[in-house]
Every structure is written in C-alpha cells, then in structure tokens.
Specification:
Blueprint (H helix, E strand, L loop, with lengths): L1 E2 L2 E7 L2 E8 L4 E2 L2 E11 L3 E8 L5 E4 L4 E7 L1 E2 L14 E9 L2 E8 L11 E4 L7 E7 L29 E6 L16 H18 L3 E4 L9 H10 L4 E8 L10 E5 L6 H11 L14 H7 L6 H19 L10 E4 L10 E8 L3 H7 L2 H17 L5
Parallel strand pairs: 5-9, 14-15, 14-16, 16-19, 17-18
Antiparallel strand pairs: 1-4, 2-3, 2-10, 5-6, 6-13, 7-8, 8-11, 10-11, 12-13, 17-19
C-alpha cells in the first residue's frame, strides 16, 4: 500500500475540527491503527489506549503539554475518530504521518512527567481486541485537576476520580460450619481470609473502587452463591481469598489460580477438588447456574473473560513478588476447575500462603503480614486493565 500525501487529522471530543494536506511523501506501511481511546483510572489517572493490528514498535516523547507516541511501520487511519472521555488530561488527538512512521499526538490540558515503565503496558490480543499499547499518567505536581470543560465536555465540574467506580467482589473462602484448612497451631483458614478480606475492602474503597464482600462474618455460603454475588453486583473483578495446606509441611508461599476446565497440573487439580468439596458441587455440571451463565461458560476458554482473568492473575503474581512475598514453587499462574470462579466475571483464586507450614501460619495470622498481602493485592487491582 502506498500513500502519496502527508495527512494531518485533528480530533476533539466534538469530532474532527481540522484537516490539512501536507507535502507529498511516499511510504509503505505494514501495521494499521485500529482505535485510539482515553479513560480515567482510579486515582484520577488518565489512560490512553492505542490499538493496532500488529504488535507495534514505538517510542514516546514529551513536548510541552503533549504526549507523542511514534509508531514504526504504521499507517494513519484517516477515518478514525478517537474516543475521548470528559475529565481526562487529553483534550485532542492528532495523527501525523511522516514516511513510514505514524505519530499519535495527544494535546494535554496540563503538563505531565515521563510515564514510569510500570504504567506502560503492551497487551496481546484477546476477545475483540487487537494489540493495545496502554499508558496511565497524571498531571505533573502542582498542576490543577483537569475539568470536563477543559477536555471537551459540557460540564465544568471537577473530576475527582474515575468516570465510574469499578466494582470488585471479595470472597473470603469457607466460613460457618466449614473452617477450611487448620494450621498445627489451630489457626483456621476461614478466620484468616475474612480478616484479609475486610482489610482489602477498606483499602480498595479508599482507592476509589466499589467493593462488596460475599460474607462479612462467620457465615457458610455455597460456592454457587458466592459466584452469583459477583454477577448480581455487576462486578468487574472477582477475588476469592484462601489459605493453603500441603502434605509437605516445608511447602510455603502464595499461589494464584484462574478457571479452566482442565487443571494445569496435578497439584492444581487436587486443590480444586479440595476447595470444591466445601459444598460438594459437581464441577463438571452447570445445573446450579442460570441458563445465560451456562451458555457463557460453555465456551469459556475462548471467551474474553478467561483472558482477562489470566491478565489479572499474572499482574497479581508480579505484585506479590515485587512486595517480596514468598511464592510457592511452580508457575506464576495455575488453572483448575474452581466452582467459585464459574461466572461471567473475570476473577482469580488467591492462596495467600500455607497454614500447614508453622512459620507461614504465624505470618498469616499476624496483622502486619496481612497488611502486606493487602497492599500487594491493592496494587494488582490498580494496575489491572479494566478498560481494555
């Protein structure tokens, strides 16, 4: 494909506002621009998502009050109107084609600092999405909070958080007549995970999320009831908290699991059997679920929910390791048919550690270690890509 003109297109939240034809430059492009969109993340961070047909090679620069992303071997999409939300730092987006390079220029309401590496993510295709380059950023220190009016909206009301609160359902495993596993020192799993769940809810609420607990006291719930709470609350993320046990008392560390019809390994299969035994659910049948959920689950491995769950779980494993929380030997994320994760809500089951290990039992019941676990989970939720 060859283009014989250099094209500049400028967009705002109100649509195209200028088109200029610039001098002739011939180029051959291979990658294609699919979409450009903005969003608002917890903490009033602006999110810029650039979606392309192929994995892009890119560079980023920071002119005054601008963010410029240069994509190599990429063609402009002259028909594309970026999706810009009110209240973000981005007030307009320009495409500039120069040879085989495409510049995506975001005009900003206020200056920003260089975006930290941890806030730049490259996501592989899943569901209806192609490759996505995701950048989260805030105004530089001392800059005013962006307003809807400044970013092309119709209201001058200040934005103090995300355009909507993301909903997280926190499931404290076991409870009531089901104590879960019990450490040699008598520590019950149901007590540990409820304590962590309550602390996690408080921290996520303070961070701008809307959170719900499947249980807030020593109550027994069937696994299908827990999953249905995530559905009824229209959750964006479902987190089931547990503590592990192992025949080897030397085994330590956290582990993270997502739903799969086939377990990733023998240990994952045994754990799923143990957790599912809480209410003797037949994990091969769907009779206890509503028809629409059964339909969605019938192709879960191909469904975007599965990919989103794995995406969160990988991020959570990284957050735990960055916090220097010991990991159980093995892969970062494992997969098994956990009944509590059977829903249309992305989610993961987090084993916080091993009560069967004497040293880790002491850690799991200590308030300071629980706070450390909570902090890591909060960071994993904040880093999760709710909008992509």
């Amino acid at each position: 494909m060859k283009f014989t003109r250099r094209t500049l297109l400028k967009f705002t939240g109100l649509g195209t506002v200028a088109i200029a034809m610039l001098p002739r430059v011939a180029f051959a492009a291979r990658n294609t621009l699919r979409t450009v969109r903005t969003g608002i993340q917890p903490g009033n961070k602006t999110r810029l998502v650039i979606e392309t047909g192929m994995r892009p090679s890119y560079s980023i620069s920071y002119p005054t009050n601008q963010l410029v992303v240069t994509l190599s071997n990429t063609a402009a999409n002259v028909a594309l109107a970026p999706s810009l939300v009110a209240g973000s730092l981005v007030r307009a987006i320009t495409q500039v084609q120069s040879g085989d390079k495409l510049q995506i220029i975001a005009d900003l309401n206020y200056p920003i600092n260089e975006i930290p590496r941890d806030d730049i993510m490259m996501l592989s295709p899943n569901g209806d999405n192609d490759y996505r380059l995701v950048m989260d950023f805030s105004a530089a220190a001392g800059a005013p909070v962006a307003t809807a009016a400044a970013s092309g909206g119709t209201s001058a009301k200040k934005s103090s958080g995300p355009s909507r609160k993301y909903v997280v359902v926190i499931d404290a495993g076991h409870g009531g007549k089901d104590p879960g596993c019990i450490g040699k020192g008598g520590t019950q799993e149901k007590v540990v995970v409820l304590s962590v769940a309550k602390k996690l809810k408080n921290k996520l609420d303070a961070a701008g999320f809307q959170t719900y607990l499947t249980r807030s006291n020593d109550t027994y719930l069937k696994l299908a009831q827990r999953a249905s709470i995530g559905e009824k609350k229209h959750a964006d993320l479902f987190l089931s908290l547990h503590a592990n046990a192992n025949p080897s008392r030397a085994m330590q560390g956290f582990s993270i699991y997502t739903l799969s019809e086939k377990a990733s390994d023998e240990e994952a299969a045994k754990l799923a059997d143990a957790e599912n035994a809480a209410d003797k659910i037949d994990v091969s049948g769907f009779e206890q679920f509503d028809k629409d959920i059964r339909i969605a689950l019938s192709s879960l491995q191909q469904h975007a929910v599965a990919e989103m769950s794995v995406e969160y779980a990988n991020g959570a494993a990284s957050a735990f390791k960055r916090a220097n929380i010991k990991q159980q030997p093995g892969p970062d994320v494992r997969h098994a048919p956990f009944a509590v994760l059977r829903s249309t809500v992305p989610g993961a089951l987090i084993e916080l550690g091993h009560l069967s290990n004497a040293a880790e039992e002491k850690l799991l019941k200590s308030s300071s270690h629980q706070d450390k676990l909570v902090a890591a989970i909060v960071k994993s939720v904040q880093a999760y890509n709710f909008d992509v």
